[in-house]
Amino acid sequence: MAITTSHRRSTQRRAIWAAAGLVALIVFAVLVIGGYALHWRWTGLSGSVTLWDWLEVLALPVAIATAPLLLRHRHGLTHRHHTTIAVILIAFGGLVLAGYLVPWRWTGFRGNTLWDWLELVLLPLVVAATSSWWRSDWRPGRQHLAAAVVGIAVFGALIIAGYLVPMTWTGFTGNTLWDWVKLLLLPLLVPIVLVPLLGERLTDRLHTDAADNA
Is the pTM higher than 0.85? Predict the structure, then answer.
């Protein structure tokens, strides 16, 4: 009886979240259409609002919403899912290149340096990439440590070259230690502080949901 009641509550919660997501999507679509097509000035949406502006607004919320899904369903991802993700990433990479080289002004990519991209994607990438760490029983393997060491070494070399050569496309020249602290503080705090605090709670929640659905 208790299991049935708990399962019913879990189903109701999922239905509520699904309905809320649908309503939010409809409202978002109406605002976009009204701003771009119907020229509702109060929305602030116009041709001057580029794809880059949208990425600045949506990158972190999308990463935060995606991380729990990755944690819950990562073992259920099939070859088709991985292929789809790879295609999306390749398509986005092509879009970025076209935005710089063509250039497509509506993308807003032209003129943004590597520093700008780090400010945009570093925290969202850390949030999404550390979703596996949210399991209290997860421990990094040798391949993870090796990849981290190689990545840090390459990034360090890029930073030195950006300042000393200097490579202007990096956007590093002129940024002080304080700028780096502001850039790296949250991305470092997420895996070091927040993930351990949330890991056990999320793991217990997933186990509870799994028991309810059994």
Answer: no
